[in-house]
Amino acid sequence: MAQGTVQVTHTGTSRWRRRTGEYASLAAALEAAADGDVLTVAPGTYRENLVVQRAVTLRGPEGAQGSVRIAPADGVPLTVRASAVIQDLHVEGQDAAAPAVLVEDGTPELLGLRVVARSASGIEVRGGARPTVRRCTVDNPAGVGIAVLDGGGGVFEECEVVAAGQAGVAVRSGAHPRLERCRVHHAAGSGLTATGEGSALEAVGCEVYEVRGSGVQVTGRATAHLTDCDVHRTTGDGVTLDTDAVLTLADCRIHDIPENAVDLRSRSVLTLTRTTVRQFGRNGLSVWDPGTRVDANQCEIFDSTGDYPAVWVSDGATAVLDSCRVHDVPDALFVLDRGSRADVVDSDLSQVRNTAVSVSDGATAQLDDCRIRDAATGAWFRDHGSGGTLNNCTLDGNRTGVIVTKGADPTIERCTVDSPSEAGVYVSAGGRGSFLNCRVTGSAGYGFHVIDGCRTTLRKCRTERCARGGYEFADGGPDSAYDSGPLVEDCTSDESTGLTAPAAAPEPVVQTAAQSPGLLGSIPGQRTTEQEPLIAGTAPAEPARTSKAVLGELDALVGLDSVKREVRALTDMIEVGRRRQRAGLKAASVKRHLVFTGSPGTGKTTVARLYGEILASLGVLDKGHLVEVSRVDLVGEHIGSTAIRTQEAFQRAHGGVLFIDEAYALSPEDAGRDFGKEAIDTLVKLMEDQREAVVVIVAGYTAEMERFLSVNPGVASRFSRTITFGDYGPGELLRIVEQQADEHEYRLSPGTSEALTKYFTEIPKGPAFGNGRTARQTFEAMVERHASRVAQLPDPSTDDLTLLYPEDLPELP
C-alpha cells in the first residue's frame, strides 16, 4: 500500500474538475491528472508500477530529495511516454528482465532522480523518445547503467553511473544520445559503448574510470565523438574500435591504462586532436588490419609503464602523426607487415629506451621534419621490403642514428645525425638504403659504418668530429660479389680533426668499396677495417691529487666505516707492493677489480670515483677517471653490436675505472637468447687482456650480485674482493641533511634534527628506498616548502631566510 497521500494541483479549466485533490495512490493521481498538472508526492515508499502518459510534473516534496521511493516488487517501476517532468524521486528496480526507468516517447525532463536497481538497465531510452536527463544517478550492479536503444536520443547532463553490472552507458540500434559533464565508473563492462550502424554517441566533458573492461568501445559501424573527456583506470583497453567504427577524440586525456590505451581494428577510423595518452601498459596506439587508420594531430603519447612500443601499426593499417610528441617510452613507433604505413610530420620522438622508429616485414614509414632524440636507435629499417623516407629530420643524442639491415631499402634525405654514442649510420646483413645530403657530427664511433659489403648509396654526405672515423666500409669477405659495397659520390669528412693515431700505428689506408680506385673521391684519410686505437689530442691533464688527499675525502663521507677500512687496506697493499718493487723485492699480486654490493644511494659510485683517483695517485692507473655504464650501454640490439659496445666502453675507461651499475642485469634469470652473455664474455676477455690498463667495478643489490658472479666462473675469478655497502641509519641520514644545509647556507631550527631522525626512522625502506639519495631529496623538499612559507612574508629576517623547521618536512610516502 502507498505510504501517505498524493496532492495534485490541476491547471485545467473544466468547471467539473476539482482544482486540487489528494489521492491514496500514485496511479490514481496520474489517472486523474491532465497535461500541465503538478503532482507533489508525499514522502514514503510506493510499491507501484507508474506509467506517465501525460505532460505532467511528478515530483517529491521540496527540500526532501530522495524521500519518495518508487519500489514495486517486479516490472518497470517508472515508464514515461509523454513530455513530462519527473523530479527528485528515488526509483528502485528489482526485475532483471526490465529497466528501472523506461522512457518510450516524448521529450520529458528527468531531474535529480536516483535510480538504485538490480535491473536490466537503470535508465533506458527507446524509439522516438528524446529526454533531457539532468543530475541523475544510476546504481545498477546487475545490468547496464544507461541504455539508449532503437533510434532513441536525448541529452544527459551532469549524470553519474556509480555502478553497473554491464556497460555504464550503452548505445545501439541507431540511437544517438549526447552526454555532457557525466561521470561513469565502477562498471563491470565498458564505460561507454556504441554499436550498430546508425548508432552515434557524443560526449563532452565526461569522465570514465574504474571500469572492468574498455573505457570506451565503438563497434559495428557506430560512430562517437568525445570532447574534453577523461578515460582512466580501466582493466582493459582505454578505447577500443572494431568493425568499421568511427571515433573522434578532441582535447581528451587517456591515462593509467594497464593494456592498450587505444586499440583499432577491422577498418575502424580514429581522429585524435590535442589529446594526451600516458601511463599505458601495452601500446599507446595499437592499429591493426587493412583499412584501419588513425590520424593524430597535436597529440602527446608518453610515460609508458610497460615494455611495448608506444605506437604499433601492423597488418596493413595506417597511422598519421602530425605535430605530435612521443616520449619516455620503451619504443616509440613500430610499423610491421606489408601494406602497413606510418606518416609522421613535424613531430618529436624522445627519451626512448630502445628504438624510436622500427620498420619491418615490408612496411613503410615516412618521416618529414621530425626530431628524434635520446633513443638507443633513432630509426631501424629491419628487413627486405621495408623502407620509406626520412626527410629533413634531426637525430640527436641517440646511441645509433639509423640502422639498415637484411635487405631494407629506405631513403634518407637532408637528415642530420648529431652526437651518436655508437655510430651515426650502421648498415649490415644485406641492408641497402640511399643517404642523400646527410650529415653526421660528433659521433663517438663512426659516422657511416657499412659492413658486409652492403650496397648502400651515399651522395653529398658529410661527417664531422667522428671519433673512430667518418666512414668505415668493411667488405663482405672473399665470397662477396665484385660489385658489392657502397656507392659513394661527393661525400666529405673532417674525420682527422682533433684525433691523432699512435706513433706506432701504420699510415691510414684509403679503402674503396668493391676495391674500385677513386670511388670515395674526396673522403680524406679513410681507415682500414682493422681499426688502430685512437688517442685524444694534446689537452693537458689536470694535476692529480695525492692519495692522502683523496683518502681524506673518503674519510669525510658519512658512515661507510667498513667500506673505508676495505679501501684503505687495499690501498696499503698496493702502496707497500710498489715500495717492495723499488727495493728489489717481490710484490704480492693484488687484483684490483672489485664487487660493490648494497642498496641504491649508499655511495657506491662516489667510492668508485675516489678509488680511481687513489690508484692514479699511486701510479697504478694513468688517469683514474670513472666511466659509468649499465646494461643498456653494453648490450646491443643486433648481432655483433654487443661486443662492439663493450669494447668501446672499455676503451673509454682506458687508464681509469669502468663502473658497471646493476651488473646483474647482464645475466637475467630468463636470459634465453639475451645478448647480455656476450657482454659478459667480452668483458672477461678484456679484463684479462688489459688488466694493467683498466680497473672494473661491478655493483648492484647483494643477492642479485651473488647470482651474477655464479653465472660465469671466469667472472668471479677476475675480482679480488667484495665490498658491502650497508644502508644508512637515521642518524647518518640526518648528518647528510646537515651537510647539505651547511653547503647551501641553511640552518636547522631547534627540534628539526629530532623531527628528521623520527622521519628517517619511519620512512618506508622498500626496494625503491634511495638511502643517501633520499636524504638529499628530503632536504630539497624542505627547501621548497620553506620557500613557499617564506615567500608569503612581507619582510623576512635572516633567520626566516635560513632556518628550516619541522613543518618544512615533507609527508611520509
UniProtKB/TrEMBL annotation:
<feature type="domain" description="Carbohydrate-binding/sugar hydrolysis">
    <location>
        <begin position="313"/>
        <end position="474"/>
    </location>
</feature>
<dbReference type="InterPro" id="IPR006633">
    <property type="entry name" value="Carb-bd_sugar_hydrolysis-dom"/>
</dbReference>
<dbReference type="Pfam" id="PF13229">
    <property type="entry name" value="Beta_helix"/>
</dbReference>
<dbReference type="InterPro" id="IPR003593">
    <property type="entry name" value="AAA+_ATPase"/>
</dbReference>
<keyword id="KW-0067">ATP-binding</keyword>
<feature type="domain" description="Carbohydrate-binding/sugar hydrolysis">
    <location>
        <begin position="41"/>
        <end position="172"/>
    </location>
</feature>
<protein>
    <submittedName>
        <fullName>Right-handed parallel beta-helix repeat-containing protein</fullName>
    </submittedName>
</protein>
<dbReference type="InterPro" id="IPR050773">
    <property type="entry name" value="CbxX/CfxQ_RuBisCO_ESX"/>
</dbReference>
<dbReference type="InterPro" id="IPR012334">
    <property type="entry name" value="Pectin_lyas_fold"/>
</dbReference>
<dbReference type="InterPro" id="IPR041627">
    <property type="entry name" value="AAA_lid_6"/>
</dbReference>
<dbReference type="InterPro" id="IPR011050">
    <property type="entry name" value="Pectin_lyase_fold/virulence"/>
</dbReference>
<dbReference type="InterPro" id="IPR027417">
    <property type="entry name" value="P-loop_NTPase"/>
</dbReference>
<dbReference type="InterPro" id="IPR003959">
    <property type="entry name" value="ATPase_AAA_core"/>
</dbReference>
<feature type="region of interest" description="Disordered">
    <location>
        <begin position="489"/>
        <end position="508"/>
    </location>
</feature>
<dbReference type="InterPro" id="IPR000641">
    <property type="entry name" value="CbxX/CfxQ"/>
</dbReference>
<dbReference type="Pfam" id="PF00004">
    <property type="entry name" value="AAA"/>
</dbReference>
<comment type="similarity">
    <text>Belongs to the CbxX/CfxQ family.</text>
</comment>
<feature type="domain" description="AAA+ ATPase">
    <location>
        <begin position="590"/>
        <end position="729"/>
    </location>
</feature>
<dbReference type="Pfam" id="PF17866">
    <property type="entry name" value="AAA_lid_6"/>
</dbReference>
<keyword id="KW-0547">Nucleotide-binding</keyword>
<dbReference type="InterPro" id="IPR039448">
    <property type="entry name" value="Beta_helix"/>
</dbReference>
<dbReference type="InterPro" id="IPR006626">
    <property type="entry name" value="PbH1"/>
</dbReference>
<keyword id="KW-0677">Repeat</keyword>
